[in-house]
Amino acid sequence: MSPYLSATRFAAEGFLRIAADGRAQIAAGHQHETERSAELEIHAAAFEAAADLDTLLTAGALKHVSEYNAEQATRLAGMLRALLLESVKVARGALLQIGKQGIATAHGKKAAAPPGRMIGTQPLRDVVWGARNQAMHAVEGEYRGEALTIFRRLEADFGVQFFLNSTVRKSRAPEVCDLLGWTQYAAFEKDMRDLLASVA
Question: Which has the closest alpha carbon to 193: 129, 123, 100, 116?
């Protein structure tokens, strides 16, 4: 293993775990929302079916409490989901930073590095470099010409999830890492070995 990959392995694996855990918690949140909806429907149906005043009052109270709990749970779930999505974006952006920094450390300039495998119509090296730049400057919404070019090609090759212009202030790091298959360290390491290799 290259000294750079050895030095950054702990961080890269940590960022991959953060992204995976975040996505798992988001999926679990969707499951909880489905369960809350089902509970709300049960209480609403009991309220509608109430035959006497006592049953009507009990069912009405349960329906009201369920609706209030569902509102609060939905609000909190939305806040948690936003925090988790931001964590995933940051972790994936950090992984792209490790990739770009490795290329720069090993080769100085991007053009001196091996291209790596093709990602659609462009080399991995260019995608990593451009995606890292986009992720780090997403909040500014000011992307350099090269990042725009790379994302236009990604959009043409893979779809609108890679759409980018100066009004898009969202890191595309999660989408890029998914596209690259960088969800496990082994895949990241394989690509980085290729990108860090000496150019003959």
Answer: 116
Is the four-CA dihedral 82, 12, 106, 180 of positive or negative sign?
A: negative
- 37 vs 30, 44, 111, CA distance in Å? 11, 10, 54
Return the residue matching tokens 């999830």.
161
Per the DSSP assignment, residues forming a β-bridge with 119 are: 122
| Band (80; pLDDT cuts 50, 70, 90) | confident
Distance CA 161, CA 158 (A): 8
Distance between CA atoms of 52 and 9, rounded to whole angstroms? 66
Predicted TM-score (pTM) of this structure: 0.78
**Are 93 and 86 spatial neighbours (Cβ–Cβ below 8 Å)?**
no
For the chain, the domain total comes to 1
Residue range 12-35, pLDDT digits in tens: 999 899 888 888 887 787 666 666
- Residue 114 domain boundaries: 3-196
Give the pLDDT band of residue 111 (cuts 50, 70, 90): very high
Cα gap 20→124, rounded to integer Å: 22
pLDDT at residue number 25: 83
Q: Is the dihedral of CA 190, 93, 19, 160 positive or negative?
A: negative
